[in-house]
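Weekly structure sync, notes
Attendees: PL (lead), two postdocs, one rotation student
Agenda item 3: pending single-chain targets
PL asked that the sequence for the first pending target be pasted directly into the notes so everyone works from the same version. It is reproduced below exactly as submitted, 79 residues in total.
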Amino acid sequence: MNKYYLAPSREEASLQQRKESMREQERRDTALDEALGFTFPASDPVALDCSATASLASKLEQFRVTIDFFKHARAERRM
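Predicted structure, written out during the meeting:
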């Protein structure tokens, strides 16, 4: 018995790849949410405020970076 399988078209293959990519992104978002302990989706827009301070004049070099994450007001810390 011969079986014939049709190869997916480029459009179907592209659509399938996008669906898989979206599912993978959702898995990463969920893992990040759980790791951070927040109730908002990680894929929500994030505003970053970064600042760096460097003191190179002395032999003791200092470098500090701070990053603040700003999310929607509905974001709450899970206890």
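Discussion points:
- The radius of gyration is 23 Å.
- Helices lie at 10-36.
Action: rotation student to compare against the earlier draft before next sync.
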